Hints:
Elements: H1 9-20, E1 26-41, E2 46-62, E3 66-70, H2 77-84, E4 92-97, E5 100-101, H3 110-116, E6 117-120, H4 134-144, H5 149-162, H6 167-170, H7 180-192, E7 198-202, H8 210-227, E8 230-234, H9 238-244, E9 247-252, E10 255-261, H10 262-267, H11 272-282, H12 320-324, E11 330-331, E12 338-339
Parallel strand pairs: 3-8, 3-9, 6-7, 7-8
Antiparallel strand pairs: 1-2, 1-4, 4-5, 9-10, 10-12, 11-12
Bound molecules: adenosine-5'-triphosphate.
Amino acid sequence: xxxxxxxxxxxxxxxxxxxxxxxxxxxxxxxxxxxxxxxxxxxxxxxxxxxxxxxxxxxxxxxxxxxxxxxxxxxxxxxxxxxxxxxxxxxxxxxxxxxxxxxxxxxxxxxxxxxxxxxxxxxxxxxxxxxxxxxxxxxxxxxxxxxxxxxxxxxxxxxxxxxxxxxxxxxxxxxxxxxxxxxxxxxxxxxxxxxxxxxxxxxxxxxxxxxxxxxxxxxxxxxxxxxxxxxxxxxxxxxxxxxxxxxxxxxxxxxxxxxxxxxxxxxxxxxxxxxxxxxxxxxxxxxxxxxxxxxxxxxxxxxxxxxxxxxxxxxxxxxxxxxxxxxxxxxxxxxxxxxxxxxxxxxxxxxxxxxxx
Length: 357
Ligand SMILES: Nc1ncnc2c1ncn2[C@@H]1O[C@H](COP(=O)(O)OP(=O)(O)OP(=O)(O)O)[C@@H](O)[C@H]1O
């Protein structure tokens, strides 16, 4: 990693683990990213509190991988995505893209970041200009970046073909003349138009029918290989995340509670929250049930989250230490699996929760 871009211990440990295995380098590092939204009230709009939407979140996305992000509604997934894209300002923390700090004097500029990292949202209709034929929407980014009209149109036509929409048939159509799946293909083409190295996909297939969803997922997998891309894939759908991800990050109330290889997370989750989340997915199949009770109650208020471990008020295994001390991400195995739980960390001596495999 670039010497000018120091990362927190949790990140360094994750990357070092990978390096020791001779694996990939990080494409993107988020280091202690924080975003609190002020809550205002009254005629004077005084600040009466703040939503701790993203609270010191640290992780790395490795080159060529798909990192899935899961967690209940409101846990901060979309805020995190918007912070990574600099669509909203962060309160604190660092972002490092391919070894270079983002912003600041010596880092890469926001313009360069946005060219290299593009985003695809869930709402495929509102992210396309309804007054532009889709070929022009795709050509827009390259035009803004200085490509001449003819070349940009040609690029847009090629990209339409790449996402499975024949340019001759679809290029002149307007967004309202396309199905949801077709619009999302156009959005993907548009995201690829600046030749990015990374895509952030925020609930990008969530609005699609299951059969169309499968087609778009396959298209994404194909494009990832063809364009040598890195994906950050945010979804509330645990099955979709399992299908597409190499590693998975689990968020709870603005914080990372677990991160690791997809098979480890899905087959042997270490955090009680991850287990409960996966239990809620598996509960239809009695053969797959795990022994812990499923998650109960609503998430606590993010304006005033519990002290220590934020999950402790819903956790069947919480002890005194969970209220008094915030658990840090620590390695639970030698295979790049990290968990923030007093009851599950390797060497913690706690086996009460039955979490130490
Ligand atoms: N502009 C804002 N002002 C105040 N609070 C906000 C704002 N944007 C998000 N929040 C709050 O921040 C928290 C995280 O929201 P976010 O949308 O990131 O969660 P999410 O995990 O993406 O949820 P979902 O899956 O429902 O989209 C929530 O409590 C939300 O209400």
